[in-house]
Design goal:
Layout lengths: L12 E3 L6 E3 L3 E5 L3 H6 L10 E5 L4 E3 L2 E4 L7 E3 L1 E7 L16 E8 L2 E2 H10 L4 H4 L5 E3 L3 E2 L10 E6 L2 E7 L7 H9 L9 E3 L7 E2 L5 E6 L3 E8 L6
Parallel strand pairs: 3-15, 5-11, 6-18
Antiparallel strand pairs: 1-2, 3-4, 7-10, 7-16, 8-9, 8-15, 9-12, 13-14, 13-17, 17-18
The chain binds manganese (II) ion.
């Protein structure tokens, strides 16, 4: 048995609804521009084409939402509410769309928090999005509901409110690429593993979160998540 040169970091994990066991996070994949209205508001072309993928580090998860310090290095933190898919089985090669359900562990609700100012600057220069998307605690996430316990309705409303005002809302059926499409497309590019999370993209209405703001998000008939942004920046 080999030893590590220092204590290995904890494996990031997310609670599982109605269970003591937790879901260990392997990777976090994210889909960009998966709702036409949001692609339009970001000035991006609306076309089916090829899905946009990016990643966050596994330890960006913030299970249960809750208090979150305003992140460093931004003056324009944005909320993006998203359906999250949890993968429960290793894929060997390509996942056919019609078998995508076999790889599903369950679903959750999450926020793809974004340093919009840094993302806009990166886009303008053709640079990577990592510092805009992959920062610490950039992925608040609800408990994962195993598919055996329930699934969001295919046309369920995905929404987010800030200080009681609704900012984002769209039916899950408005997604350009379905969960089966995305599992298939990702499996062409990466080896999908049990423990992977996939943030499925956000509806129109993204906007700023400020210190003191309280947000609540939901998928009607499925789950909710809430949190608040605190004034004190986290030390870097
Ligand atoms: Mn997003």
């Amino acid at each position: 048995m080999s030893a590590y040169v220092f204590a290995a970091p904890m494996i990031p994990s997310v609670p599982v609804e109605s269970s003591e066991a937790r879901f260990p996070v392997h990777r976090i994949y994210c889909v960009g521009r998966n709702f036409a209205e949001h692609a339009r508001e970001m000035g991006a072309p609306v076309e089916r084409g090829t899905p946009v993928f990016f990643m966050k580090p596994a330890d960006a998860v913030l299970p249960g939402g809750g208090e979150q310090p305003y992140p460093s290095a931004t003056a324009d933190l944005h909320h993006e509410v998203e359906l999250v898919v949890a993968v429960g089985r290793d894929a060997r090669g390509t996942i056919p769309r019609e078998q995508a359900g076999d790889y599903l562990f369950g679903h959750a609700l999450g926020l793809d928090l974004t340093r919009r100012d840094l993302q806009s600057a990166a886009k303008a220069k053709g640079l990577p999005w990592d510092i805009a998307k992959g920062f610490d605690r950039s992925a608040p996430i609800s408990a994962i509901v195993p598919a055996s316990q329930g699934m969001p309705a295919s046309d369920a409303l995905l929404w987010l409110e800030v200080n009681g005002t609704r900012r984002q809302a769209a039916a899950l059926s408005d997604m350009i690429f379905s969960v089966a499409d995305i599992l298939h497309e990702l499996s062409l590019r990466f080896e999908l593993r049990a423990g992977d999370l996939i943030f499925m993209g956000t509806p129109a209405g993204v906007g700023a979160l400020l210190p003191g703001d309280r947000w609540t998000a939901g998928i009607d008939g499925f789950t909710t998540l809430s949190g608040c942004i605190t004034a004190t920046p986290h030390p870097v």
